[in-house]
Specification:
Blueprint (H helix, E strand, L loop, with lengths): L1 E5 L14 H14 L3 E7 L7 E6 L13 H18 L5 E4 L16 E4 L9 H7 L5 E3 L13 E4 L20 E6 L6 H11 L3 E6 L5 H8 L8 E3 L5 H9 L3 E4 L9 H8 L4 E4 L4 H4 L6 E4 L2 H11 L4 H11 L2 H14 L13
Helix pairs in contact: 1-11, 4-9
Length: 355
Amino acid sequence: MKIAQISPLYEAVPPRLYGGTERVVAHLCDALVEAGHEVTLFASADAATRAELAPVRDCAIRLDTGAFASNTANLAAHLSQMHEVRRRAAEFDVLHFHVDLLHFPFFEDCADRTLTTLHGRLDHKDMAPAYKRWPRYPLVSISNHQRRPLRQARWLGTVYHGLPPQLFAFAPRPAGGYLAFLGRISPEKRVDRAIEIARLAGWPLKIAAKIDRADRDYFRDVVAPLLDAPGIEFVGEIGDADKAGFLGQAAALLFPIDWPEPFGLVMIEAMACGTPVIGWNCGSVPEVIDEGVTGTVVDSVEAAAAAVRTVVGYDRARIRSVFERRFSAAAMAHDYLDLYAGLAGRGGRALQLSA
């Protein structure tokens, strides 16, 4: 099968540091190539991929220190990308987009040959009318909860994110003696809540997190004053090379979010290391966590602090096993191949599941 993967241009594929969508696209491309398919990745030139790379920008927007970042410039880069995909569209059996709905006005005549994975939240103003305006595009959610604001959209399926097992070494006996927070410093990620949980539970907390420009004031005014508390360590932003050690040596991952999380990649990164997750009952969290096996879902700081005593005794080998079954890159690729094949019965070309 000839498959085009169209990635956002904000981060490298995979990202050098923080980044979710581009990381998932990278692992999906490699897994599809491993399965014997011809994959072309439309991304920035700094991508590291087993697919054939179709570079549409010299480097990821975030890494471009020589350019002035603006919404207009970002849009211009993505419009140029859409032009190149459109020019080559006839070469592929399926066009798999990961750029929200940016491509909708340009591919209406071949919408049945496209698949669009939505990676973000869908409850913002103007989204529902836009998806109603372009109803022909087959959509994929990354959790069932993510669909709720757009129940009437043309959902083809839900595919959970996956990661290569070899990327994260299994840690059967964590030696770090700390709780971990990994992600981004922002009000909805609630690192302040993680600090409160750790202090109430009596455990040290290590925080590895990115600080976006938009969240610098929040970090300065809300988070920074909390970092002076005993046992709280701010590590800063880390990349893939450091994640396995950081998560694997943690007793548990705290995921105390306060927003409708579409998926939560860090949860399965922790599971890949055998590390249990204490997650808040928001968004996709109850779908991703196998209650009592890979972690637990809580509704309060007190419940989260009490859960630490329980989850540290979970069978870490079993957590890793669940990750391999549910959230490997190969499992993700298999689920997408099923959907690609399903396009044949929905007006698309006749597609074969295997190469």
